[in-house]
Design goal:
The complex is a heterodimer. By secondary structure, chain A is an alpha/beta fold. Helix content of chain A is about 35%, strand content about 10%. Chain A is built from six helices and four strands, in the order αβαβαβαβαα. Chain A is globular and about 60 Å long. Chain A starts with 13 loop residues before the first helix and ends in a 5-residue tail after the last helix. By secondary structure, chain B is an alpha+beta fold. Chain B has one domain: Cytochrome-c3 Hydrogenase, chain B. Helix content of chain B is about 45%, strand content about 10%. Classes of the chains: A alpha/beta, B alpha+beta. Chain A: Its EC number is 7.1.1.-. Chain A: It holds the Pfam family Oxidored_q6.
């Protein structure tokens, strides 16, 4: 995904060019810093939690990607890892936790239950967390192998690097409650 | 009551008269904690307002899914209520919509730490209905892989308990040992933790030729790691202070609540289904049942450590006693025929088609099978109407009585003691909330 700043207008004054260049550099630097220091909030509910334990332990060692710090307060985290089945009773809490996280924030759906409901196609289970919160990377598997999880994490890192980052963002960030992303 | 006004519901009008649910005061019992008395009036804390703290549902100490509403007087738990159902995913109903054979993946995800033990429990109830005799080698393979998974389950508990009491190293050792066992299980069934290995009438695959030798190597390494964990925790002053005398439940109360498995044995009752009503080949194996005496968190931890050693013995005996032979019954009403027969003969093709499309025709009737899973008695109650699907399936989750007893076990204890207690009863969301 190309950054928005890469498409500068053809006619630009020197001042604008200089600002654009500076902003691009800042954006790249921020992207590099953010992708290598993801603080995760593990929203662990079910079986995938066992694989999450393996991913964060010595053999697979998520620390190699700078994402080894689990924070159990949404205010301190910028990566929401939804690990396991989310059912209808759990969904409002997941949404609340997501809204409590401060910007910028990313979401990984860990496992097939979080991605699409998996084979729990019944009255109790929500058919994928993207019905309540936006998702950046989906990791399939029931549960996914740790290698697959690390691949998903690297995918997210590439995505973060390519996004546009600003030092100060004055624009109002639309929340789901106002933005109409809510499912009826 | 303090927690009544916080969205937890009130009294149940249909509860049995005289029970706790009907509003009667809880029966006092021996193991209950009492807040320590103070020597003088100056030492006593100031009288404060009662505070209600909400633990969970997304809280690291609540293992992800349970919500505990705790009324606190200072740091002492006055009352606690548990709100479960955050991982209810409709196990029983889902199983009624698929064929008998397709239920196995659902049973994998009940207690996802020891899935083969669940597979075995479910296979036994179907085989009971079909009155089927399983080949000897299949029975040995079931016991062998099941006990490997029991080691995994206990390792996870000990590792998580260490982690939550501040011993991160223990967690890393425990997970390393568990990964080694999962490597062996991957070689035999293709999956790391949701194995789907057992079938009605046997098991899905035979073990590779060099597998037994590799299992023995793995067990040796796991034993090394286990002893390291033992050295790090069992005589550790902090760990002992946190776990001894906390979360106590006496033998009588444990029996009243319906405890089974390691939690019951930690309270001094030597009841193990593998000994009391042997199934598969447990009557031909030599192993001991460890029994505790205090019924506190420390004893429950020790039970797990000792059971891992016993499972180790069982696996080694299985490897020695196992002889080559069939791994499934040779009856195509229950088991898929081998591929050459499916492609080469019309009978094989028909049997395959019928099994895949309609499922196993289990004779009409009802049966209950109970096995010793890692946390206690795992019961499956199945009703069949003779069609290809379960008419009704019921589950007796091993962790359920322990979770139900938690408010009683922690009454009067400190809030910090709730964490090791919650760990040592090993509540697994998948099976308790189904």
């Amino acid at each position: 995904m190309a950054s928005d700043l890469d498409t500068t207008p053809v006619i630009a004054t020197r001042r604008e060019e200089a600002t654009g260049f500076f902003q691009r550099m800042v954006s790249k630097g921020l992207g590099w810093a953010r992708k290598n220091s993801l603080w995760q909030y593990p929203y662990v509910t079910a079986c995938c939690g066992m694989e999450y334990m393996s991913v964060s332990s010595a053999r697979y060692d998520i620390a190699r990607f700078g994402a080894e710090v689990p924070r159990f307060s949404p205010r301190q985290a910028d990566l929401l890892l939804v690990v396991g089945t989310i059912n209808c009773k759990q969904a409002p809490i997941l949404k609340r936790v997501y809204e409590q996280m401060s910007e910028p924030k990313w979401v990984i759906a860990f496992g097939v239950c979080a991605s699409s409901g998996g084979f729990y196609d019944n009255y109790a289970t929500m058919q994928g967390i993207d019905r309540v919160i936006p998702v950046d990377v989906y990791i399939p598997g029931c549960p996914p192998r740790p290698e697959q999880v690390l691949d998903g994490l690297m995918l997210l890192q590439r995505k973060i690097q390519d996004q546009q980052h600003k030092l100060i963002d004055r624009a109002q960030v639309p929340t789901l409650a106002q933005g109409g992303g809510e499912r009826r | 009551m303090a927690t009544d006004s916080h969205g937890m519901g009130g009294r149940d009008p249909q509860a049995t008269p005289g029970s706790f649910g009907a509003g009667e005061p809880a029966r006092p019992f021996e193991g209950q904690h009492h807040a320590r008395g103070y020597e003088g009036a100056l030492d006593a804390p100031l009288k404060g307002r009662q505070m209600v703290v909400n633990l969970g549902p997304s809280h690291p100490a609540m293992h992800g899914v349970t919500r505990a509403v705790v009324a606190l007087e200072g740091e002492t738990i006055v009352e606690m209520k548990l709100d479960i159902g955050f991982l209810h995913r409709g196990f029983e109903k889902s199983c009624e919509n698929v064929t008998w054979g397709q239920c196995f993946p659902y049973t994998d995800r009940l207690n996802y730490v020891s899935s083969i033990l669940n597979n075995v429990g479910f296979a036994l109830v179907v085989e009971k209905l079909c009155k089927m005799e399983v080949p000897l080698r299949a029975r040995y393979l079931r016991v062998l892989t099941g006990e490997l998974h029991r080691i995994c389950d206990h390792l996870t508990l000990v590792a998580a308990m260490g982690l939550e009491l501040g011993a991160m190293t223990v967690f890393l050792y425990g997970i390393e040992a568990r990964d080694l066992i999962w490597d062996r299980l991957t070689e035999i069934c293709g999956a790391r933790l949701t194995s789907n290995y057992v079938r009605v009438g046997g098991v899905s695959r035979d073990c590779p030729d060099d597998w037994p030798a590799k299992v023995e190597q793995t067990l040796a390494r796991v034993a090394e790691l286990r002893e390291t964990i033992d050295k790090l925790l069992t005589r550790n002053r902090i760990f002992m202070d946190r776990t001894r005398g906390t979360g106590v439940i006496s033998r009588e109360d444990a029996l009243d609540f319906g405890f089974t498995g390691p939690c019951l044995r930690a309270s001094g009752e030597p009841y193990d289904i593998r000994k009391a009503a042997p199934y598969l080949v447990y009557d031909q194996l030599d192993f001991d049942v460890p029994v505790g005496k205090n019924g506190d968190n420390f004893d429950r931890y020790l039970m797990r450590m000792e059971e891992m050693r016993q499972s180790d013995r069982i696996v080694r005996q299985c490897l020695r006693q196992m002889e080559p032979g069939d791994i499934v019954v040779q009856d195509f009403r229950y088991v898929l025929p081998p591929k050459p027969q499916v492609y080469g003969t019309i009978e094989g093709l028909m049997a395959h088609f019928k099994l895949v499309m309609e499922g196993i025709k289990v004779p009409a009737g009802e049966a209950y099978s109970y096995t010793e899973a890692a946390n206690g008695e795992l019961g499956f109650y199945a009703v069949s109407d003779g069609g290809g699907r379960a008419y009704k399936l019921g589950l007796r989750a091993p962790g359920w009585p322990m979770v139900a007893a938690l408010p009683h076990m922690t009454k009067g204890a400190l809030l910090a003691d709730l964490v090791p207690t919650y760990d040592s009863i090993n509540m697994i969301g998948g099976e308790v909330e189904q």
